[in-house]
Every structure is written in structure tokens, then in C-alpha cells.
Design a protein that fits this description.
alpha+beta; two-stranded antiparallel ribbon; 12 strands; 33% helix
């Protein structure tokens, strides 16, 4: 059987087995790969994490995905400098400018630059990206919510109920400190990534999670070690007293979203 026929067969199976879009109440029409292929080097994405979604939710968040790709490639010590000179880097810049004109210049306008002691013993500069733009925050909130709802579907076995919530908080290269990172890791004992035979890129996309298998999922997801998303998703938020204060916070933090609210946050 040809690869195209295999893909069509899998697409038909996914759509027939899903009663609604995993992000809203609409009927599923398309198959979405989340995280998207653009987040992987050379667009070489292992198979898996494919979901039935409506056309609007699948394609209506391209700007959010473009921004996630962009910030995932900005690290503190400029190890990714070569990426920006590559065709893939130029494509990432072009896509962000097309989907969210002017946002790139806002992000890079006032980066925080400081010195640090490199392993070599030399003092080098590090660049910290802190997003203050309301548009940028909304885009990454939407990306993070999609991620939480997609992984909920993957590990719970059904879409997040319409009365359920996903609570998210994201960190660019400046936000997730070592102490908080280690505290979160102790909460999530299971590691997962995409695997296709011997093909696996855990440094590009990987996550640690915890779940009861039926009502709640929590995870810390990392993209290229520079962009992190922490989320909790549950179909019974009252049972688990959600939303709540994340580790290190005194009050409810992050973004809270129900299925069906994804696109309204971007308008």
C-alpha cells in the first residue's frame, strides 16, 4: 500500500472515531499535527500526536504557532545563532512577519543583556527575551492551550469536556529558573516525546507528565530547551479545585481556557 493511501486510511479512521473537534464543539474536518512540523529541525517530525480538529481551530492559530517557533529558537547564550542564518531560520522569520506583522521587532526591541560565566571559564553575554506585548501573550496563551488540550486527548483518550479547563503558564528563555524547573520535574515522573522507529528528538520536543488516566493531566513541556509550557487540564475542575496557584505563586496564575474559547482569545 502506498504512503498516500496509508495516510488517507489513517485520516479517515481519526475523523470517524472523533465526535467533535478536540478544541471546540464543532465537527472535525481536518487532521492536525500538534506540535506542528515547523517546530522541528528540517521539518523532520516523527509521526504521532495527530488529532481530529475543525478547520477553524486547526488553521486559525498559525500566528501562535509561528511565534512559538520563533521564541523556541532564542536561547540565552546565542548557541542558535547559526540557525538564524540558515534557510530554516529565515523561513521562521518570514512566517512570523507574515502571520503577525511587526511582532518580531517588538520582541527584539528591548532584550535584557547580561554577562555570565561560561563552562569554558570565559565571561560571555546572554540574551533574555521577556514578552510584554499583549498580542504576543495572547498568541502564546493560545498555543499553550492547544498543547494542553491535545495532550489531554492523547493521554486521557477523549477530548477535554466542554465544561473542562486547561490552565497554562509559559516561559521564554528568561522565565523558568533552575529551582522552579527542578520542583516541577519532581512532580512529573513520566517522560514522553515523539518516536518513529529510531527517529526521536527529545531535545527539540519533550515533556514530563502526571495523570490519573481519566480526569486530569498535568505536564511540563519543553521546545528546544528555550520555550517551556506548564499546564493542568481537567474535565472535572471543581473536583481538583482548578484553577489554582502554580508552584511559587500566591494566587491563581497563568491563562485559563475552556474548549471553544481558543479563537476568541486571538481577536
Amino acid at each position: 500500500m502506498s504512503q498516500s493511501r496509508i495516510r488517507n486510511k489513517l485520516r479517515t479512521k481519526l475523523l470517524s472515531n472523533e465526535k467533535r473537534c478536540i478544541y471546540c464543539a464543532s465537527l472535525p474536518e481536518t487532521i492536525e499535527h500538534f506540535p506542528p512540523v515547523s517546530l522541528f529541525d528540517r521539518r523532520d517530525r516523527p509521526s504521532g500526536l495527530e488529532f481530529a480538529a475543525c478547520e477553524a481551530c486547526n488553521h486559525g492559530t498559525k500566528a501562535a504557532e509561528a511565534l512559538a517557533v520563533f521564541v523556541s529558537r532564542i536561547d540565552k547564550d546565542e548557541r542558535t545563532a547559526g540557525f538564524w542564518g540558515s534557510q530554516a531560520g529565515q523561513n521562521a522569520i518570514f512566517t512570523l512577519e507574515r502571520e503577525a506583522p511587526g511582532l518580531r521587532s517588538q520582541i527584539l526591541q528591548n532584550p535584557s543583556i547580561s554577562n555570565y560565566l561560561a563552562p569554558s571559564g570565559e565571561v560571555e553575554q546572554q540574551i533574555e527575551i521577556r514578552l510584554s506585548s499583549e498580542k504576543a501573550k495572547n498568541l502564546l496563551d493560545a498555543f499553550s492551550a492547544k498543547l494542553g488540550m491535545a495532550l489531554y486527548r492523547e493521554h486521557i483518550g477523549e477530548p477535554l469536556p466542554l465544561n473542562g479547563i486547561v490552565q497554562t503558564i509559559w516561559y521564554t528563555n528568561a522565565g523558568l529558573g533552575r529551582d522552579l524547573y527542578e520542583k516541577l520535574l519532581r512532580t512529573f515522573p513520566i517522560f514522553a516525546t515523539l518516536k518513529q522507529g529510531k527517529k526521536s528528538y527529545p531535545n527539540q520536543f519533550g515533556y514530563r507528565y502526571n495523570t490519573d488516566g481519566s480526569r486530569i493531566l498535568a505536564a511540563l513541556v519543553s521546545f528546544h530547551g528555550n520555550f517551556h509550557v506548564f499546564f493542568v487540564a481537567s474535565g472535572e475542575p471543581e473536583t481538583f479545585e482548578l484553577p489554582y496557584a502554580f508552584i511559587g505563586a500566591s494566587e491563581t496564575t497563568g491563562n485559563v481556557m475552556h474548549p471553544g474559547e481558543l479563537l476568541s482569545r486571538l481577536t
